[in-house]
Amino acid sequence: MKMRQRTWTRKAAAMVSLAAVTLPLMTTVAQAKTVTDNLTPQAAPYGYFVDTYQANVSKNTTQQNNPVVGEMAEFSTYWADGKKLNEGLLAQNVAKAADITQHRNDAEAERSYLTDRRDLRYNLISGLGPYATAFVKNADAQTDFNSMPSEPLPANAPYSKVNWASTTSTLGPLVQLVNTTARSPFSGTGVVKHVVKYVRPYRQSDQVKVVPALSKVMAAAKADDYDFPSGHTTAAFESGLTLAYAVPERFQELLTRSSEVGYDRVLAGRHSPLAVMGGRMVGTAMTAATLNDSNNRDLMKQAYQVAHSDALLGSKDTTATDTFSDYQTNRDAYRFRMTYGFNQTGDTTQAMRVPKGAEVLLATRLPYLSDTQRRDVLYTTGMPSGYPVMDDAEGWGRLDLFSAANGYGALNDNVTVNMDAKQGGFNAKDNWRNDIDGQGQLTKQGSGRLILSGHNSFNGTTLKAGTLELANATAAGTGNVKLAGGVLQLSTAKVTVKGNYQQKAGQLKLARNAHVTIKKTAKLGGTLKLTKGSLKSGTKLLTFHKRTGKFTHVSGLPKGWHISYTKHAVKLVK
Asked: What are the residue boundaries of the Phosphatidic acid phosphatase type 2/haloperoxidase domain, all occurrences included (predicted)?
């Protein structure tokens, strides 16, 4: 099993300062087993969550008869019957909560207050960014909390009293789909909370600083108002992932907002980091269960269709502030909130597991892949084992959906991608941002455009149709590159082909000042198209160890310019 380290730094807002940490993206390279063997789901004591989710009811309180209790079972090795079984980890859990509350700024305090008071589903609308305005209008979305009061709310202050959105509105099917997940009678965390009975952090330590506006409300909370897992975070991932299914164009932004809701709960003093990590797991599993339920199939289709009408994606507000517009900020924040900086204290040798039905979460984000391929994406982008709470029997805790939206983490076998541009959306164009390794090869078919943006080390690339865009020097991997059709486009100044380059047909497209380094042999054919770029006689467009053949046609050069073939290069000549 191979792990690639990714180092990143989360820049916290205002007073919050978090140290740079290393959080690996696990890329598992299959050896003895086939890819299919690795993707076989593993049953938990309760069976499979997507099959048993409706057993999350008050009468079921064991790991065997309630999937939520079973999914959260690892926490019982830290805390059980009111006793601390892992004092060090639990102390760290409360200390992290205290540190976060002590360093929140005013904007974070207000955001966490609004997250607390508003309808759980309304909290995710901001993740739609420039489409939020249209959603509010066409879903009749409402809230009665828009700012934080200067004085504490009364102890008995109610939550939002208005309906968050209307099922009879223009966006009614989308609203109903969110309700089906986030307001399902089976989606709550009340049962497992009363099984675990873990006390909220502000009641464990006065170093956890509650948001002042909520101080009276929280002081008056009932004694059995428990911490683990976070219900708000569960609902955030249920709402966010359901919206992401219907609006995959905002997949990572909605995921980031979902995780931010969990962070808001820690900021407010309501929950501990372990509680929101657990909430992420429950919300993810519950959403997958809802989307796998055949009774919801028609509603899912209607929600997707209305989301892609003028009522939402056709009504972009270019003046709106998009809190989640920066990809790297989103990625850093989401990755931090996967683990909250906890160390791997458990078994770090466990193979990745992909839960039954989890692939549905990527169905609209990676629509050109098969279910098996989507499972493989989840497998190769999963988190390493050993982090607190996250090693549940099925594998829900280790799913890194943000990274999975960037495509494969490794090609453990040969992978063929067939994209049909006529279907639009991600079928027409997608960008794989991960650093992809593995011993497999990539074959691109179909009329769509696939962009490879990662620093890749998989074993070779074949383009048969459509466009394959290489966005950095090592995007093509470490093996041979074969161009049998379509357009191989360079959107970077330099690309290295570490094996052989063979172009039987198709078009190689690059800037006039770009350079392709071919470490071995070049077999040229097809066409060469040169795009804008500085012109300098003698510029080497391609270099190679040796060459056979020539391009059948070259375009994109002014009159008087041509290319020449030497023993080890193709050059611009005037």
From this structure: 175-291
Domain boundary among 283, 314, 340: 340
164 in a domain, yes or no?
yes
What is the domain count for the chain?
2
Asked if residue 437 and residue 336 are part of one domain, the reply reads no
The answer to whether the CB of 381 falls within 8 A of the CB of 361 is no
CB-side exposure of 213: number of CA atoms within 13 Å? 18
Does 428 lie in the same domain as 546? yes
134-151 core/surface letters (b: 16 or more CB in 10 A; e: else): bbbbbbbbbbebeebeee
Cβ-based neighbours of 73, under 8 Å, separated by 6 or more: 45, 63, 392, 393
Q: Is residue 325 located within the same domain as residue 423?
A: no
Query: Are residues 434 and 297 located together in one domain of the fold?
Result: no
- How far lies 152's CA from each of 39, 155, 218, 270, 370, in Å? 51, 9, 10, 15, 52
Per residue of the chain (574 residues), what is the pLDDT tens digit? 333 333 333 333 333 333 333 454 554 443 445 667 789 999 999 999 999 999 999 999 999 999 999 999 999 999 999 999 999 999 999 999 999 999 999 999 999 999 999 999 999 999 999 999 999 999 999 999 999 999 999 999 999 999 999 999 999 999 999 999 999 999 999 999 999 999 999 999 999 999 999 999 999 999 999 999 999 999 999 999 999 999 999 999 999 999 999 999 999 999 999 999 999 999 999 999 999 999 999 999 999 999 999 999 999 999 999 999 999 999 999 999 999 999 999 999 999 999 999 999 999 999 999 999 999 999 999 999 999 999 999 999 999 999 999 999 999 999 999 999 999 999 999 999 999 999 999 999 999 999 999 999 999 999 999 999 999 999 999 999 999 999 999 999 999 999 999 999 999 999 999 999 999 999 999 999 999 989 999 999 999 999 999 999 999 999 999 999 999 999 999 9
- Specify whether 455 is located in the same domain as 332: no
Q: Is 530 contained in some domain?
A: yes
- The secondary structure of residue 532, as a DSSP letter, is S
User: In CATH, what number is assigned to the domain containing residue 241?
Assistant: 1.20.144.10
Residue 184 maps to a domain:
yes
CA-only gyration radius of the chain, Å: 26
Residue 133 included in any domain = yes
Q: Are residues 335 and 424 in the same domain?
A: no
Among the candidates 340, 369, 404, a domain finishes at: 340
**Dihedral class, residue 197 (left if φ above 0, else alpha if ψ from -120 to 50, else beta):** left
- How far is residue 176's CA from residue 186's CA, in Å, rounded to a whole number? 16
Clarify whether residues 298 and 420 are in a common domain: no
**Per the structure block, which two tokens stand in for 190?**
């009340």
Closest by Cα among 336, 431, 401 to 7: 336
Distance between CA 136 and CA 400 in Å, rounded? 29
Three-class secondary structure of residue 163 per DSSP: coil
Q: Which amino acid is at 142?
A: Q
> Which residue type is seen at 230?
S
pTM of this structure:
0.93
